[in-house]
Design goal:
The protein has 9 helices and 17 strands. The protein is an alpha/beta fold and about 375 residues long. The strands form 4 sheets. Strands 12-15-14-13-16-17 form a 6-stranded antiparallel beta barrel. The protein is globular, with a radius of gyration of 22 Å. The termini are far apart.
Amino acid sequence: MSKHGRILVAMSGGVDSSVAALMLHEEGYEVIGVTMKTWDYAQSGGGKRVTGCCDLDSINDARNMAVSRGFHHMILDIREEFGDAIIGNFTSEYLAGRTPNPCVLCNTFIKWEALLKRADLMDCMHIATGHYASVRRENDRHVVSRGLDPAKDQSYVLWGLTQESLERTHFPLGGFTKERIKELARSSGFPELAAKSESYEICFIPDNDYRGFLKRKEPGTMQGLAHGKLVSTTGETLGEHDGYPFFTIGQRKGLGIAVGEPMYVTEIVPETNTVVLGRKEDLRCTRMWVRRPNFQKIDRLRGEMEVVAKVRYKDKGTPATISMDDQRVLVEFHAPVAGIAPGQSAVFYDGEDVVGGGFIDRETPMS
């Protein structure tokens, strides 16, 4: 009989999730490792050899490590759910003039749901992942906070987790640095895990060419969007483009024109197949709307609240005041912020804690 009961651990085959499983195993949990198969990589169509999470080699690495330590491992096939929800959203968001964030959606709406369903079937009260973040209970709320290692903190991608999910979730790596996790892998007899390179590509686009993926996924639509207009912020036509989904807010390279000074994508207008270019200062704004909010540290937003708002994963954050209308959060920054991309996640922090987050709205008042 295990000391702490059964726990289902998501294992991608990388060093982080593998060490998380090892730590829980050594603490006395009955660990059941699960690797999720999300995508048929042969369908990606790219030329790059697949080296990301959950490919065949990674699945084998996770299984071999589990077997070597005497705990169970299984493969969970979620390709159907992943394809419908994540890849469908990926293409539809670009076609709506937004920049999607598939990893946030996958974490929140696919992987956690799939893990918890399987945990119920396996009589596991809890699940665990190798994210660099922490979770605690405070004032009858389950609160996510930043991981100890600022370079690896992953709290940003966890804003969408519900209280019901967090109640059953463990993050064993929250109090460790990445280097310490590699040391633990080496000292535990798995130096090959510590030496593994990390993949930062979207898992279903291993060649990191999202434009090529869209062309293969929606060939007719992409072809029909060719010869759209590139215009200045004053409405002057500057050139043509091959389709607005191939652009993101803040983009400077690959615009296909030269006007004698650096230009940036400041707006995407799908209704007219138009991409607006401006100077760097045109990217700055002091307000934005955030849709589909989820709150963690508070049950709901009452009145105004002072937070630090992050508009992208590597963003250091900017002090802001947030308030609600009926369904959206209004964010008013205390200093101008550049490159806010509709479709990306905005995450609100109170010190080290995640207050909540949501998706940046395309109807954001850029002022």
